[in-house]
């Protein structure tokens, strides 16, 4: 028992000794850490003091020599939206630039292999005046602090990174909207330096896209991108003429996802067009049903198609505009088809009624004309009889004429009553004959004019048409033809539409 107690005591003492040694080692390490950290701080402070003492941030690296080369890359955090109305797109990215400034090179030590610096040091060193040439309204993130950092390597390589939201302009061709693909560039260059002073280029992995960026694209898919760098003469003028700039570009290829438009516009429009065809199976005498269906279909197409929902404001028709116009014309023509049937039906019924009236008028006019002609002939006969009787009664015999001629006592003033009465009677008969001829010609002229007018107003061929003699059957055939013609024509036009916008253009 005593031996066991001694062994236990020795074990406890040994355990406590081991614990104390570990704690002492940790304490010594902590002292060494603080000592090393202080040395690193002092070394960085001394290094920065030496680097910035005679540093002039207004002068670019390699001043008077070869251009300073700036290497860039982008890590896209999110993209979109791509807005066709404002002809622009948004990119949230980490924009990284790297360049070599020999004035910032230093000797590396075991504890200082790189200088990680606060963003405020940027105010003390030279940095390229990079800007986005086709940018519209970009911004830098400043919450909670400005999102930017700086690294300086011993060989003078300066790595500068910042988080930006880039709002860039993209000129879009929207004739195939919403089945279009867009090429949107991002041009980067120097605002003040020419290509003889600063050159821009991309790293091997010029663009990196996070999974989140691909998920945030709602209407577009990013199909591919192409990075390039070139020097070209731009329209920015200097004293010597137009300047030669170094421009680095990335071209994004977007393809629109048209599922939204299929669900919100194309499918409802198809259904409305097919609903307008139901009118062809409604009885043509049921005017309220057919008219209300046609008007409702036209208003629905106008509301959905021309309301401007999600449509770009461009001066030329897009593929969506063409489709809406096709649907509207189809619905409108289905309404016009019933209007045509109704017009033909009313026209034929009125034509038949007018024809009956004209027939009655012609019959009455013929009877009246025949009565006038009979009266005129009877008057002529009576007048001729009267004239002939008067002529016979007033003519003297040959003996009396001889006696009259031989009578010596007759003077020149003796009145010849018989001869005067004969002359006046002949003149009356001539006037009456002329009056009767004029009346007869006037009646003939009126008859011809009325005949021509009736022929012009109601052309004769109408009464010989099939639609005149079989009106109901003809109208039913028009409806039957429309039931086949409208769907087949619409299907053919849609087939041509798909062929044009998906394969030809």
Automatic annotation (TrEMBL):
Any one GO cellular component localisation term in the record: postsynaptic membrane
Family to which the UniProt record says this protein belongs: Belongs to the ligand-gated ion channel (TC 1.A.9) family.
Domain called Neurotransmitter-gated ion-channel transmembrane: residue spans: 265-497
CDD domains listed in its UniProt record: LGIC_TM_anion
Signal sequence extent: 1-24
InterPro entries: GABAA/Glycine_rcpt (IPR006028), Neur_chan_lig-bd (IPR006202), Neur_chan_lig-bd_sf (IPR036734), Neur_channel (IPR006201), Neuro-gated_channel_TM_sf (IPR036719), Neuro_actylchol_rec (IPR038050), Neurotrans-gated_channel_TM (IPR006029), Neurotransmitter_ion_chnl_CS (IPR018000)
Transmembrane segments: 260-283, 322-348, 485-504
UniProt keywords, alphabetically: Cell membrane, Chloride, Disulfide bond, Glycoprotein, Ion channel, Ion transport, Membrane, Postsynaptic cell membrane, Signal, Synapse, Transmembrane, Transmembrane helix, Transport
Protein name (database record): Uncharacterized protein
The keyword Transferase is annotated on this UniProt entry: no
Chief place of localization: membrane
Topology term for the membrane: Multi-pass membrane protein
Molecular functions per Gene Ontology: chloride channel activity; extracellular ligand-gated monoatomic ion channel activity; ligand-gated monoatomic anion channel activity; transmembrane signaling receptor activity
Localization terms from the record: Postsynaptic cell membrane
Chain ranges of the Neurotransmitter-gated ion-channel ligand-binding domain: 48-257
A Pfam family hit: Neur_chan_LBD
């Amino acid at each position: 028992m005593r031996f066991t107690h001694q062994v236990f005591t020795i074990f406890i003492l040994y355990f406590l000794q081991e614990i104390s040694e570990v704690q002492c080692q940790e304490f010594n390490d902590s002292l060494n850490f603080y000592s090393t950290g202080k040395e690193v701080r002092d070394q960085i402070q001394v290094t920065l003091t030496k680097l910035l003492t005679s540093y002039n941030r207004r002068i670019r690296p390699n001043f008077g020599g070869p251009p300073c080369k700036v290497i860039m890359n982008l890590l896209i955090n999110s993209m979109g939206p791509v807005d066709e109305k404002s002809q622009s797109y948004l990119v949230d990215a980490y924009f990284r630039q790297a360049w070599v400034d020999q004035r910032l090179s230093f000797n590396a030590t075991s504890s200082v292999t790189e200088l990680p610096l606060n963003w405020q040091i940027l105010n003390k060193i030279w940095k390229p005046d990079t800007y986005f040439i086709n940018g519209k309204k970009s911004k830098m993130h400043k919450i909670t602090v400005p999102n930017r950092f700086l690294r300086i390597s011993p060989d003078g390589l300066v790595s500068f990174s910042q988080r930006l939201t880039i709002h860039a302009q993209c000129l879009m061709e929207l004739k195939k909207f919403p089945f279009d693909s867009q090429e949107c560039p991002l041009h980067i260059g120097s605002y003040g330096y020419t290509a003889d002073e600063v050159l821009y280029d991309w790293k091997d992995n010029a663009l990196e896209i996070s999974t989140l960026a691909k998920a945030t694209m709602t209407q577009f898919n990013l199909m591919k991108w192409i990075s390039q760098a070139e020097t070209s003469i731009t329209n920015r003028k200097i004293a010597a003429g137009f300047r030669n700039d170094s421009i680095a570009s990335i071209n994004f290829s977007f393809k629109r996802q048209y599922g939204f438009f299929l669900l919100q516009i194309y499918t409802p429009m198809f259904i409305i067009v097919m609903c307008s065809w139901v009118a062809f199976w409604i009885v043509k005498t049921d005017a309220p049903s057919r008219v209300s269906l046609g008007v409702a279909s036209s208003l629905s197409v106008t509301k959905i198609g021309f309301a401007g929902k999600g449509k770009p404001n461009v001066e030329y028709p897009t593929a969506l505009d063409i489709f809406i116009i096709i649907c509207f014309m189809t619905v409108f023509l289905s309404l016009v088809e019933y209007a045509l049937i109704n017009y033909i039906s009313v026209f034929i019924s009125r034509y038949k009624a007018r024809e009956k009236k004209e027939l009655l008028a012609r019959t009455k006019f013929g009877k009246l004309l025949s009565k006038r002609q009979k009266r005129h002939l009877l008057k002529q006969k009576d007048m001729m009889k009267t004239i002939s009787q008067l002529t016979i009664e007033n003519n003297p015999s040959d003996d009396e004429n001889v006696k009259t001629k031989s009578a010596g006592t007759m003077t020149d003033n003796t009145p010849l009553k018989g001869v005067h009465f004969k002359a006046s009677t002949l003149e009356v008969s001539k006037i009456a004959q002329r009056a009767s001829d004029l009346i007869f010609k006037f009646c003939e002229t009126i008859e011809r004019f009325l005949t021509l007018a009736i022929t012009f107003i109601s052309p004769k061929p109408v009464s010989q048409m099939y639609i005149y003699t079989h009106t109901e059957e003809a109208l039913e055939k028009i409806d039957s033809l429309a039931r086949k013609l409208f769907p087949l024509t619409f299907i053919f036009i849609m087939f041509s539409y798909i062929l044009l916008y998906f394969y030809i253009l």
